[in-house]
Amino acid sequence: MKKKMTFGLIAATVMLSASVYATTPQDDIIILYTNDIHCAIEENMGYAGVAAYAKEMEGIYGKEDVILVDAGDALQGGPIGRLTQGKAIVDIMNQVGYDIFVPGNHEFDYGLPQFLNLTNLLNATVISCNFVNLDTDQPVFAPFVMTKHGNIDVAFVGITTPQSYFKNKNGKYHLNFSKNADGKWLYSNVQRAVNEAINSGADYVVAVSHLGIGETSYPWRSTDVIANTTGIDVMIDGHSHNVMENQLVQNAKGQNVILTQAGSKFDKLGEIIINPDTDTITTRLISEYSPKDLETQIFIDNINSRFEDILNNVVANTDILLATRSPETDVRIIRSQETNLGDMVADAYRTYLDTDIAIINSGGIRASIEPGEITHNDIISVHPFGNWATSVLVNGQTILDALEMGARKLPAENNDLLQVSGLTYTIDENVPSSVVLDDKGRFVEVDGEYRVKDVMVEGNPLELDRKYSVGSVDYLVLNYGSGMSMFKDAIILKDKTLVDNEVLLNYIVDDLKGNISNKYRDINGEGRINIIDLVDPAYKEYTVVEGDSLSSIAYNQLGNGERYNEIYELNKDIINSENLIYPGQVLRLPSKNEVIYEYDIIEDEDVSPNTELNTEIEENEAILESETNENIILLENETLTEDNIILEDETLTENNIIIKNTEIIEDDVIIENEDTSKENSQEVNEDENKDTANKKNIIEYEIIIEEETL
Predict the structure, then answer these.
(1) 573-625 pLDDT, tens digit each
(2) Residue-wise over 575-611: b if at least 16 C-beta within 10 A, else e?
(3) 0.85 cut: is pTM over it?
(4) Which end of the chain, N or C, is less packed with Cβ atoms under 10 Å?
């Protein structure tokens, strides 16, 4: 039975209470963790480095006491992942010897059937307490797994971001990630799993989450889950690509919980050391480690060699930087303005689909193209998701609403910002966004003045009642990704005709004849998006209403719940405690642009969505330094793309790792008589998992590209 523990931070060590677990000496328990690798097979330490370090630790502590964990978003984000639909990455993870895996939102980018196939192939135990069957509210996977270390039991509870969901072609949802507007469904399922783990004898509870701390993930952030639950000792996090060695966050009882995250693309390798004899939990992040495991490196080399010719095939040339980032500052700009690469990608869809206009969300354009030769690898890196070119017929009002939805977060970085072709528009940042969203973050209406103005289609004003053909990807106009539910009544003209990177490849090769024209010379684009910059007063007044907290005021009024400390600093002459505000009290609020505190900017890799302070990453992280005794909070407007997945007409075979007694009816996924094949409390057989990971070096893969398009 888990003991009640108290925490105090000393350097990188958390001291537990003096209450003891055992009477005999117990070796340290080592937990190694990665998150958000996004197919970065050999970046930084790389998988071969992780394998070498894990083996070194096993030599010191023994295999039983070394656990290797991944907190999600491993299978998508690079060309080899895309070409093999994630299978090559699974094979590498098996070779390394991962023990526990929690799905991230991008694990579903290849579709639900392929996701289930990949988790069946993965040797690691897959856990997620909040990935549920809507009919039964029961987890699809085991909610937690228990590992034994002598007479000590450690429970690992899996949590997947609710910013992942999918549906069938009839628009019906059968599986969900416990997503509702206030987060209580998620908190309830996490608490239930933690309680079950403790009742099963867990001495320590380690949450492995893919939640993140970005403001647009509220109320499903790791900090929100900790604050609304009890019993978790340490949380390994992912999704927001932060580098956090150990932040202390108070749980629902005011007890400190360690929160840690290892960045992205092997920025760091995380390590947690549990010492039951001294009742301490120590965390650290490892960035410098040069040894490589030879067997793993050979395995990776064999995979790379299979795709080298394909990926390095030169398809075009450019003397122009096609930008997602500023060449002067390396700050990502594509999610806050027009760029030449955004123009070119939108032009590619409009040309291929032969539509009046085209739109593409900025978050779907993932990498710049540097001057010089353009390879197939470069094209896939720009468009790695495998979305499908689709065209629809809608009225002008739908187009206006889509542009408004995409502009609602500016001047903050925003992966929903629409890059366009065939039209121009203006965004007035001085007009507050009045977009109304539902509890899934999807568009409902604009309840006020539009920030988007002067929309022109081929030089003519947009007519709200006129029909226009729109080229885009299925993610936006069929699956309502980025919350674009205004397309729900669209007439489909061409349904999923060509994969996204092939659309771009064909445009560059066939239409531009392999040479990027002067049309795209200016990295700021052709002037399709005009932005009127925000003029913000020093501060404004706000009257507190019932139910308000400083965090909720910061979120609703400033667009960032983690700026509550700034409100406190402006009003500490009238607030005795950060928790004591009352209805009718008038508070001073800082401007949306003003930042009172100092921020350390940490360079990170580019992989994903937004941040308000930099221009994050999945890149630059900003650490908010506060003089209060509250938890140190990392600010990052990080939101990974919420990829709705439409299930195709496919038949799933019985997946005895994940779902038993599963009946597939057309393209619905209906789980009947749910009984996950892995018990809620199960043990990882370390030797067996690691032994089965030693597969042959050369794996045959189906290359998901037609030969004539290469």
Answers:
(1) 788 665 678 888 888 888 765 443 333 322 333 333 333 323 333 333 333 33
(2) beebeebeeeeebebbebeebeeebeebebbbbbbbb
(3) no
(4) N
